[in-house]
Amino acid sequence: MIWLAWRQFRLQAAIALFALVLVAVFLAVTGAHLRDLYDASGITTCRAHGDCAALESLFLAHDKVLRNLLGPSLLAVPALLGLFWGAPLLARELESGTYRLAWTQSIPRTRWLAVKVTLVGVASIAVAELFSLMVSWWFSPVDKVSLNRFTPGIFDQRGIVAIGYAAFAVALGVSAGALIRKTLPAMATTLIGFVAVRLFITYLVRPHLVSPNHLSAPLGSVPDVGFAAAPAGTTLMAGSPNVPNAWIQSNQIVNAAGRAPSGQYVHRFLQLHCPSIVETPSAGSRPAPAAFKECIAQLSTSFHEAVTYQPASNYWPFQAYETLIFLGLALVLIGFSFWWVRHRIT
Amino acid sequence: MIEFHLDARSGVSPYLQLVHQVRHALRLGLLDEGDQLPTVKQVVGRLAINPNTVLKAYRELEHEGLVSARPGVGTFVTKTLSDDSLAAHGPLRRELQRWLTKARRAGLDDESIEALFGDTFRTAALEVVA
Amino acid sequence: MSSVLEADGLGRRYGRRWALRDCTLDIPAGRVVALVGPNGAGKTTLLHLAVGLLEPTTGTIGVLGEKVSDTPAQLGRVGFVAQETPVYPALSVADHLRLGAHLNPGWDDRVAQERMQQLQLDPSQRAGSLSGGQRAQLALALAVAKRPKLLLLDEPVASLDPLARREFLQGLMEIASEQEVSVILSSHLVADLERVCDYLVLLTASRIQLAGEVEELLATHRRLIGPRRDIDSLPAGQQVIEASHTDRQSTLLVHTEEPIHDPAWAVEEVSVEDLVLAYMRQGTAAQRDPSPVWGVKR
């Protein structure tokens, strides 16, 4: 059976190997170039002394197009594996009728399926993770500068989550093939299902995987503090503090008791403590920096920014949990496929 | 080695057709004592008929004493029918030709001659049995 | 004589439709069995149940003395050629033989090689580019090289030209003569099967209409032609299968164990095809008219 599974997989494996080699060579060449740029940028020496924002943005301006292409294309890899390796596994045999040949040889259909799924599953995981490792290597100078490992789209390309994604995509493809019994509809279903689940988990599940840390940031230390006119008064806004490689999950301006101020309150406070600001028309013109700074200092006495965030140290637990979730989903789907094939295929 | 053929529309069952063809071959001298009949595999491979049909025919011939089956080797002719060959019955043939001439002069066509002969033949066969 | 296939009250339902119903059979070993019936009658369903691709909804089915199951031992004893003889188009002829060798412990490569030599197939040719007849022969070789005790074929010659059909049956009969194997082959064309089969099973509208040794069936059915007669006036031992009347004449197909003595009848033997057609017509008439109809079940 191993012989047959390999013989049927041969061509797909060759294509994947070819793609891997092609991409590897491309990444090696462009990655070396990127590293040279990084070494020449002077960022490492600058870092020792403090603010390197100018050098960093200069470095990040290089190869922007390539970066923007490489990133998203990797997201497609597990989906493609599910589509082209997972969906046809059962669907093609059921659609063309060859299952009537395969299942009347001397091996039970469950063993037939087990060997095929294992071969394709292991190969998919290996291919997806190899792509992930290669691209992670390529991006490492950029990651050292951007320090945004948790960002959706970047989190998915690094680390070990590709293992979970690939396993899930293939399992989804196999199940779709079992239920739908036709290759093209199974491929379409796999794609839609994969994207839907990935989006769901990224935005609705991932934030809750590990309980976040909390910190209070003084208003003077955060960027982009400002006011906006609102129907009920004035809204006070502020940006998130810069915590490298952390994931800011929420920030809110609150008073000492932890309550957010109402628009009315902010408006009255401003009238009282920052009269020069209030008098200036809202849109377009900017108040004098000194007056603004003084206003912020006033506000800081009553308000601070409450930030919930995932520290950089939580990165690998997140990777692990997400990988396990997808592996778990994959196992459930594969178990279902086996049951379906054993009892329901007629 | 003889070759069999089947007439699907003759109304005669296949195994009997095979038996007749062997007997016919023996009479004509196409098969001699010691000659091997085609193997079952060869016959069914050519005619696409059930092997049991051939086995039944060969068993019938064996029952009549004409052939003998040697397991693992084949089926071989043990007795010829050339003593009954048509050439040896000159007087009978001439008598038959005279009768046929008489029947035609009496106005019988081919079908009537066959019907008359067939009917008399069957009646005579029953009398022999009785 | 042992049974090669036994079914008792076997039935298979899809949703509300019964594909096969009340199927009771006892087919003796060593035969070449014709499974005939119109399209949709349940032939493929019965074969799939026998080979384990389907599970029964009701009743039981046993093959070679054991219940049909998914075990390697049982699978190794039954060879199957599915409808349209599926093969893997991308795999070569030699690959298919290797497939058989790897997946069947009972594989006898000599048999496979012998059949390949006879067929003169190019081993490196992709199975997708074979003709229909060649594909059928390849599928047959795959099924027999594992030396099964029972060979099931689902309409193997249905879409073949007459020459390919003849060649396939020649090959099949060679195999039947060499190996100790029982054969069940289904077809909706009866003419092919007359020379090849010695046991007949007729399925119409998901039910068994007729089953028995061909010799016995031919010996116990007669066509009677005579003056117009009411069929109820016939003796009890003569079961009318089919009757057709003109104003003067009646033609009946009867099943009877005893000779016909009534001199008014002209008695003729029937061919297998006549028999099958008559029972098929009764079977489909019964489907349309729900009142009970005669059917001979053995």
Describe it.
The complex is a heterotrimer of chains A (346), B (130) and C (298). By secondary structure, chain A is mainly alpha-helical. Chain A has 12 helices and 5 strands. Chain A has a 3-stranded antiparallel β-sheet with strand order 1-5-4. In chain A, strands 2-3 form a two-stranded antiparallel ribbon. The longest helix of chain A is centred in the N-terminal third of the chain and has 40 residues. Chain B is mainly alpha-helical and 130 residues long. Chain B folds into 2 domains: 71 residues, Winged helix-like DNA-binding domain superfamily/Winged helix DNA-binding domain (Arc Repressor Mutant, subunit A); 41 residues, no CATH class. In chain B, strands 1-2 form a two-stranded antiparallel ribbon. Chain B starts with 13 loop residues before the first helix and ends with a helix. Chain C has 298 residues and is an alpha/beta fold. Chains in contact: A-C, B-C. At the B-C interface, helix 2 and helix 3 of B face helix 6 of C.
Which spans of chain B of ≥5 residues are poorly predicted at pLDDT below 50? none
Order of helices and strands of chain B: HHHEEHH
What fold name stands as the CATH topology of the largest domain in chain B?
Arc Repressor Mutant, subunit A
Q: What is the topology, as strand order, of the major beta sheet of chain B?
A: 1-2
pLDDT < 50 runs, ≥5 residues of chain C = 290-298
Structural class of chain B: mainly alpha
Q: What would you give as the CATH superfamily of the largest domain in chain B?
A: Winged helix-like DNA-binding domain superfamily/Winged helix DNA-binding domain
Give a brief description.
Chain B is mostly helical. Chain B is 55% helix and 6% strand. Chain B has 2 domains: 14-84, Arc Repressor Mutant, subunit A (Orthogonal Bundle), CATH 1.10.10; 89-129, no CATH class.
Descriptors for this entry?
heterotrimer, A: 346 residues, mainly alpha, three-stranded antiparallel beta sheet, B: 130 residues, Arc Repressor Mutant, subunit A, two-stranded antiparallel sheet, 55% helix
